[in-house]
Automatic annotation (TrEMBL):
CDD domains: RecA-like_FtsH
Transmembrane segments: 37-56, 160-182
Cofactor(s) the record lists: Zn(2+)
Active site: E480
Task performed by this protein: Acts as a processive, ATP-dependent zinc metallopeptidase for both cytoplasmic and membrane proteins. Plays a role in the quality control of integral membrane proteins.
UniProt-recorded name of the protein: ATP-dependent zinc metalloprotease FtsH
Any one GO BP annotation for this protein: protein catabolic process
Broad class of the protein's primary localization: membrane
Residue ranges of the region described as Disordered: 1-31, 97-124, 662-681
Known partners and oligomeric status: Homohexamer.
UniProt KW rRNA-binding keyword: no
Natural source organism: Noviherbaspirillum humi
One annotated GO molecular function: ATP hydrolysis activity
Membrane topology designation: Multi-pass membrane protein
Amino acid sequence: MKRDNIPNASRPGLPFGSRQPGGPNKPGQNKMPPRRAWLIFVLVLLANYFVAKIFYQGADAPVTVPYTIFKQEAAKGNVKSIYSQGASIEGRFAAPVTWPPTETANDPEHRPPGQKLQVPSRSSSTFTTTLPAFVDPGLEEFLINNKVEISAVPIQEGNALASLLLGFGPALLLIGFYVWLYRRAAQQGGGMGGGIFGIGKSKARRYDQEQDARVTFNDVAGIDEAENELVEVVDFLKDPGKYTRLGGAAPKGVLLVGAPGTGKTLLARAVAGEAGVPFFSMSAAEFVEMIVGVGAARVRDLFKQARENAPAIIFIDELDSIGRARGQVALGGSSEQEQTLNQILTEMDGFSSREGIIVLAATNQPDVLDKALLRPGRFDRRVVVNLPDKTGREAILRVHTRKVPLAPDVDLSDMAAATPGLSGADLKNLVNEAALLAARRGQDDVRQKDFMDALEKIVLGPERPILLSQADRERIAYHESGHAILGLVVPGADPVHRVTIVPRGQALGVTYQRPQTDRYNYPEAYLRARIVGMLGGRVAEEVVYGTRTTGAENDIEQATNLARSMVTRWGMSDKLGMVQLAPYQNPYLGGSAGFGGEKPFSDETARLIDLEVQRIIDESHADATRLLRAHRGALDALVRALLDRETLDEQEILAVTGLPPAPELENQHISDAAGGGRALG
Ligand SMILES: Nc1ncnc2c1ncn2[C@@H]1O[C@H](COP(=O)(O)OP(=O)(O)OP(=O)(O)O)[C@@H](O)[C@H]1O
Ligand SMILES: [Zn+2]
């Protein structure tokens, strides 16, 4: 229903690249000043406040008293001295006076003129007051009679030290804080290249074989091609002289290209581990700070460290975050980014291959990289790290289950078959989830069922307990059954693995279909079958209730995207023909490079695209309606079973509906031709 997914591990056009939920997300590193520094800053401010408060009281802040009280006190002989300027008088009492008197402090009748309610009564030996507007004749004589000294300087100035501290104390504290911060940074950062506060230091993490568990090619599985290409790099690092003896230049930079979680970092570490050299790793996003020039300083420092420890590996993760083609970056950080990038180029040109340093970098967007990075002598080698195929997935599962006690019924080959599209990181996560689940269930080993449940949680999202009315549940059941029935009756549809009306993740119900094998090439009929299936939820609601809900939003989005790709990328519209009408999308990586600027086609073509997309959707809608009407009996039966049992697996679905699994596509010749020997890029 709402945001209802038909998760299907292999998406056309992204046979490998589609990101699966549950994989590790790496948000861009956001560099903030260390939290401790902030804490200390706040503490200093607080200290400031208290110091000021103490001196303020020490300076004996004057109380403001009414003129009459001043005269009363003077008459008592309690006023030692005054200083007057204009209508205001300040002075010093012989004995401190408390004002307002405590017991009447908040009594409005005793409120001193001009003062608000709630004035706390205070005791002080200095005071201020204001001469009334009418002149008080004989005041001077009265004062002299009462031995009040009429001072020539302001009374407060007597307390010179206090006011000095009051004025400069906070500033002194702040200066002290900065001096301390600087010295601390200098101690940590050290060195000349450290720059102010050491922010020019690279912060690169160095993995040393003795500290971290050493990673070797044994820990990397399922990406053998990439691994083989890096063997040469290992050889070179083991004996740099051997390669350059005859004047040849060894590789300087290798770019690892692959979807997130395919093991690029792991591979780089394994190269270092195999060669037994230090590994300096840094994410490119970490280079760039708010301050221009810092990134470049960090790059310099990183290469300096590596040189001192050569032979060594420098690994720069997320290269695209700084390596974007210059002039193409967003406003703002561009000049900093450019400087950082230039520094990397300079450094790479600066060392000779004899030094035994190899720079590995990882990216999942090679198309956006600045061409200068890819020139000879820089990242001139590319190693593509693909998502693993079934054999690869099994091997990766084997690596990650090495230390996990497996029950005899666990079939990793079966698990590998069930996980097309998952990356190495996803598979690692799967093993972890399964182990946690088994532990929670109080078992001593991990069983196949734990793996299956963990997979479901990763692919479909965790179950969500929300209370639904009976009417809503029925509607959701019809929606999901619509998807499922079409998955059984449309030729070429992926087998329906599971249907549930238990809300999971974002969805209120889920129909999970998965292909039987990894698919690398998609026949048009298969894509049509998928669109028909995606529309099945809404169509079932229309057929049964004759009304619509918002529950098909996600279905509509997916179907539209697929239809649009058919028209604009795969030349499957006769009206538009085999013309590229959408930017190239790397099937291994997803995303697209963008046309960069204007659309390379006319408004008329744009309109035609929209019409063709609509035509495909409309035709699929008609197909779905026809098929669901024809199988209304099976639809109702499945709904009854779902309302009763909530979740049905493949066998139960077949039993309840009495339908056979969907027939294979008869018309396979398109994909056969493409797969049969002739290589189409
Ligand atoms: N081919 C693989 N074999 C074994 N383990 C793998 C493989 N690929 C990924 N993993 C596991 O997944 C974890 C994460 O992978 P890694 O960080 O190397 O991916 P990445 O390609 O660098 O991802 P990103 O692009 O997100 O940085 C690894 O530490 C490893 O445990
Ligand atoms: Zn749906």
